[in-house]
DNA sequence: TTTTTTAAATTAACCGTTTAACTTAGCAAA
DNA sequence: TTTGCTAAGTTAAACGGTTAATTTAAAAAA
């Protein structure tokens, strides 16, 4: 890579000092119009571009935010990142994207490296198994703006942008029950992860509210990928669980169970109502999931970014507050039309 | 945000100079073991983290690469970014992600801003309508490492990592013909965009090779989204085109035509063989596309990142070379099993 | 005519870190 | 006793840019 032109290079060509060049390029009134014109001309001629690294050093502003996601090659993550990117960009910020791959140590390393890079704030979706919060405590003490999205750690003093998993799960399962289902199994996430815990809680609340006693044997805790769904469903069958509906914690889990059904006994696909969080990313063409809670990825990203930038720009304080982004409850009917189901506020 | 601890802060606490601290933390032999120990202790105690911005200024290395994609909320882009991210990360680099939204001016702005940020290299997938190459000429003159991926501009002196669109299209369409199709329509991309041009070229070559005269009326040029597919298919019908197969330039275009078919006459779905580039992102559950050319996003990302980092580390020269990543040709059969079709090298 | 103001620059200092060159005390060798 | 060497630092300068304080000459006001 060639050495890039600097203020000094322009200065020498014009017998001026770099300070004058700096001022000229930023239209500072100290400099005469004639000089400004010459300076800008030379700047263009030799392809001068300001070195933002150097500028950052004095201004201590990098116009940069760090993003940490557990995965990127998934529809939902990609949507969120798109939402973040767009909002940040509209405010003149650029994002540095890192992926933890569901690994808490990598997550921590990325955060440290982003802080070292002097990002002005962090947007983090914590990995499944994160338990150590030391780094987050340090971030809070340093008052580095941070907003969690999708997956968060409570009581740490940060804002989080999430969907109301508990309520959405409760409403959705409630709808299943009202439609006649009684034996609803649940392929759940881990209890120590917010989405796992809250979706299960909503599930149990819905059952109880309709006078059905939750049966722990009908719930299987596990990972949130397709494999876990495949294995989880087989485990349900091994336990001799009878069911008329299956609530999967995520789309991939549901997909895994769907594959298992097709393999074992395709008639189950018609007999068992499928409900899952998240969608396939393509609408109106896939028969599954029959019922699903749509997670508005872009909107989550946008809101998280907005909250963060408000904090960076000093228009807001961190608050340990959960910001809920509304979800929609959708049904794919027999001719693959997708329609929203309005749930009456109970 | 609180002021972060600096070398000077440590130095004052120990009555040393910042240089000694810098050396101590980097295990420079100038410093005694006893001092190093003390320095490191204080550093940990006050939560010192090196300021990479300052370090970059002296080293002129940022360990950062800039990525420009036209979209991010699409399976393929997300896959590519995942591949890039993973490889870059394994080499200690971090990525700055920007999205051009298919807008050439935004693309140019992003590139300029990334260069100003002193990224050590660029990975770019050009937007559909990019025609102005001035910025790329400048990048070449400055010898800033750049690798195109997926969509590239030829003859500019940069490496590009792509799939062999022409050959893959030719092979796939050839397979359709061998399976008995004669009237194959094509919803194409624009001719001035590499993927559009080359996929169409492959399509025409396959026809000619099997003695079928390409009919321009059976080809519709346009955008590469679902809308374009929907409108394009209707346009084919409006032209009274009869077809037994339809080759769509991208998955979303095919999806759009699929939706149009379902709307107008669902029996077309069975009568017309569907072929498209790209997949739905979920396998074994969607009946469409029947035949598809799988684009190995992660592998494209990985290879592009590798090429770029080799260049950054001085182990390779830019060459105006096309690196082809192999594609697979897949078929979804009636019970939704996906199998690869081996094509005999002709 | 002398003083004050203003325009258009310059010099100095700093951001946090690194590299190169220089200092100092203590010790060993001649 | 003097010289030379080494260990363990320090000082100076640089990276590219910004801000604050200062200079200089010319123009305007007294």
Give a topology summary.
The structure is a homodimer of 346-residue chains.
Chain A: H1 7-14, H2 18-25, H3 33-45, H4 52-59, E1 64-69, H5 75-90, E2 94-99, H6 104-116, E3 121-124, H7 134-141, E4 146-149, E5 159-162, H8 165-178, E6 184-188, H9 194-209, E7 219-221, H10 226-238, E8 245-248, H11 251-264, H12 267-271, E9 273-277, E10 291-294, H13 297-312, E11 322-324, E12 328-332, E13 338-340
Parallel strand pairs in A: 1-2, 1-3, 3-4, 4-5, 5-11, 6-7, 6-8, 8-9, 9-10
Antiparallel strand pairs in A: 10-12, 12-13
Helix pairs in contact in A: 1-2, 1-3, 5-13, 8-9, 10-11
Chain A binds a DNA duplex (30 and 30 nucleotides) through residues 6-8, 16-20, 22-23, 26, 29-32, 35, 50-60.
Low-confidence blocks of residues of chain A: none
Strand order of the largest sheet of chain A: 7-6-8-9-10-12-13
Looking at the structure, the CATH topology of the largest domain in chain A is Rossmann fold
Q: What letter string, H or E per element, gives the SSE order of chain A?
A: HHHHEHEHEHEEHEHEHEHHEEHEEE
Alpha carbon gyration radius of chain A = 26 Å
- From the N-terminal CA to the C-terminal CA of chain A, the straight-line distance is 64 Å
What is the number of helical segments of chain A per DSSP (H or I, 4+ residues)?
13
Structural class of chain A: alpha/beta
Sum up the overall morphology of chain A in one term: elongated
Mean pLDDT of chain A: 93
Q: Tell me, what is the CATH class of the largest domain in chain A?
A: Alpha Beta
- The CATH architecture classification of the largest domain in chain A is 3-Layer(aba) Sandwich
**In oligomeric terms, what are we looking at?**
homodimer
């Amino acid at each position: 890579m060639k050495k890039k032109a600097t203020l000094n290079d322009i200065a020498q060509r014009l017998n001026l000092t770099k300070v004058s060049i700096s001022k000229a390029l930023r239209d500072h009134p100290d400099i005469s119009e004639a000089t400004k014109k010459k300076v800008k001309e030379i700047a263009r001629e030799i392809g001068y571009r300001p070195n933002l690294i150097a500028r950052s050093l004095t201004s201590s502003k990098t116009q940069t935010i760090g993003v940490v996601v557990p995965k990127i090659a998934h529809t939902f993550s990609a949507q969120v990142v798109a939402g973040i990117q767009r909002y940040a960009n509209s405010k003149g910020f650029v994002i540095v994207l890192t992926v933890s791959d569901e690994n808490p140590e990598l997550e921590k390393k990325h955060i440290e490296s982003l802080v070292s890079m002097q990002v002005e704030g962090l947007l983090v979706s914590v990995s499944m198994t994160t338990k150590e919060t030391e780094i987050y405590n340090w971030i809070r003490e340093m008052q580095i703006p941070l907003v969690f999205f999708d997956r968060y750690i409570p009581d740490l003093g940060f804002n989080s942008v999430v969907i109301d998993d508990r309520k959405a799960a409760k409403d959705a399962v409630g709808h299943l029950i009202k439609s006649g289902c009684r034996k609803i199994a649940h392929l759940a996430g881990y209890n120590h992860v917010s989405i796992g815990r809250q979706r299960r809680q909503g599930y149990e609340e819905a059952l109880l509210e309709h006078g059905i006693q939750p049966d722990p044997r009908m719930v299987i805790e596990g990972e949130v990928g397709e494999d876990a769904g495949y294995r989880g469903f087989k485990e349900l069958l091994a336990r001799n669980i009878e069911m008329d509906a299956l609530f999967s914690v995520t789309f991939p889990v549901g997909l895994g169970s769907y594959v298992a059904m097709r393999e074992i006994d395709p008639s189950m696909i018609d007999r068992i109502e499928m409900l899952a969080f998240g969608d396939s990313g393509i609408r109106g063409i896939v028969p599954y999931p029959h019922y699903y809670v749509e997670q508005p990825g872009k909107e989550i990203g946008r809101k998280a970014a907005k909250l963060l930038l408000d904090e960076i720009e000093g228009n807001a304080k961190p608050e340990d507050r959960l910001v809920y982004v509304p979800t929609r409850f959708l049904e794919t009917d027999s001719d693959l039309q997708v329609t929203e189901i309005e749930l009456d506020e109970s």
